[in-house]
């Protein structure tokens, strides 16, 4: 699943390639991915991309330049194409898209946006696998997207201070792993980077968030910032096709069950759930004690 660092890199790449260019055609190909119908996807055609920004894991393409309401019953001149890539979505840039219009239901292609210039350039939004969770919204205000409206603070923002983070912890009555992944608490962190952050902070994923000491809180806050910023820097400037591979190669514990911990050499272990798993190092994070590999696991006594 693309998380904050990958979406941040996508944002930079797409802004560089799209801003100032107009939309020639929009091809919505997967009905399940379209979460809005007014304005319709075709309302983007003829508009100019003004910016590409990020809200947590959401991509926000802002387009304007003419009356976006022409034929759509709206007087606004600005629209937002908001995309959440979910677990298996991705964006593929192409300098020469096929000339023939794409056909719905063929392969992973969910949305195609063709630019007016340079001719043939544009991007595809794809989703692999059978679990279809990709979400595409076309709105006049990104706050109209429920997932954006409920987002917590961005951990890379200047306002995400130790004091602000401490206040968030004081509201929590659950384990720290679940808190880090909750987009309504902190925006942009998913399963992979929450594992990486907790490893860097030398903290059990099942430690209650409200029980953290001042020292532990400061350590976790620092690990959030350093882990995410380092991941962003590693992926900066890479072609889109290389971002997924870079993410995997840069992870120290997530997805590395059975491998040696790069810090202490202990074997990385896993706890499996119904639809996901977490990885951790017993020596670095749980005082050498393994976690029971079952749902709602607790430290073995």
Classified in CATH, the superfamily of the largest domain is MutM-like, N-terminal
| Name of the level-1 CATH class of the largest domain | Alpha Beta
For the largest beta-sheet, the strand count, sense and barrel status come to: 4 strands, antiparallel
Strand content: 15-25%
Helix/strand structural class: alpha+beta
Biggest β-sheet: strands ordered side by side in the sheet: 1-6-7-5
Protein name: Fpg/Nei family DNA glycosylase
Organism: Streptacidiphilus alkalitolerans
Domain FPG-type: 252-286
InterPro entries: FPG_cat (IPR012319), FPG_N (IPR035937), H2TH_FPG (IPR015886), Ribosomal_uS13-like_H2TH (IPR010979), Znf_DNA_glyclase/AP_lyase (IPR000214), Znf_FPG/IleRS (IPR010663)
Describe the protein.
With 301 residues, this protein is α+β, with helices and mostly antiparallel strands. The chain folds into 2 domains: 4-149, Alpha-Beta Barrel (N-terminal domain of MutM-like DNA repair proteins); 162-285, Helicase, Ruva Protein, domain 3, CATH 1.10.8.50. The protein has 8 helices and 10 strands. Strands 1-6-7-5 form a 4-stranded antiparallel β-sheet, with helices on one face. It has a 4-stranded antiparallel β-sheet with strand order 2-3-4-8, covered by helices on one side. The chain has a two-stranded antiparallel ribbon with strand order 9-10. Helix 5 crosses helix 6 (214-235). It catalyses: Hydrolysis of DNA containing ring-opened 7-methylguanine residues, releasing 2,6-diamino-4-hydroxy-5-(N-methyl)formamidopyrimidine. Keywords: DNA damage, DNA repair, DNA-binding, Glycosidase, Hydrolase, Lyase, Metal-binding, Multifunctional enzyme, Zinc, Zinc-finger. InterPro entries: FPG_cat (IPR012319), FPG_N (IPR035937), H2TH_FPG (IPR015886), Ribosomal_uS13-like_H2TH (IPR010979), Znf_DNA_glyclase/AP_lyase (IPR000214), Znf_FPG/IleRS (IPR010663).
């Amino acid at each position: 699943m693309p998380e904050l660092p990958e979406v941040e890199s996508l944002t930079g790449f797409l802004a560089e390639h799209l801003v100032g260019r107009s939309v020639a055609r929009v091809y919505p190909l997967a009905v399940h991915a379209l979460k809005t119908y007014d304005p319709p996807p075709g309302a983007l055609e003829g508009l100019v991309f003004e910016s590409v920004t990020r809200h947590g894991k959401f991509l926000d393409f802002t387009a304007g330049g003419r009356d976006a309401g022409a034929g759509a019953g709206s007087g606004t001149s600005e629209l937002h194409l908001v995309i959440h890539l979910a677990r298996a979505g991705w964006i593929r840039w192409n300098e020469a898209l096929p000339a023939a219009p794409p056909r719905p239901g063929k392969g992973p292609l969910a949305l195609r946006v063709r630019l007016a210039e340079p001719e043939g350039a544009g991007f595809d939004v794809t989703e692999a696998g059978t679990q279809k969770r990709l979400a595409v919204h076309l709105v006049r205000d990104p706050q109209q997207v429920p997932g954006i409206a409920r987002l917590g603070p961005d951990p890379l923002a200047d306002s995400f201070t130790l004091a602000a983070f401490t206040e968030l912890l004081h509201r929590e009555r659950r384990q720290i792993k679940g808190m880090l992944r909750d987009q309504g608490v902190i925006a942009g962190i998913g399963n992979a980077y929450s594992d990486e952050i907790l490893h860097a902070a030398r903290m059990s994923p099942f430690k209650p968030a409200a029980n953290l000491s001042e020292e532990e809180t400061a350590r976790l806050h620092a690990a959030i910032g350093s882990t995410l910023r380092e991941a962003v820097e590693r992926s900066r400037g890479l072609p889109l096709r290389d971002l997924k591979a870079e993410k995997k190669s840069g992870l120290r514990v997530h997805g590395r069950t059975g491998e040696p911990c790069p810090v202490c050499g202990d074997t990385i272990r896993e706890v499996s759930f119904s639809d996901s798993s977490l990885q951790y190092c017993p020596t670095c994070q749980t005082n050498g004690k393994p976690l029971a590999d079952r749902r709602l696991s607790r430290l073995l006594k």
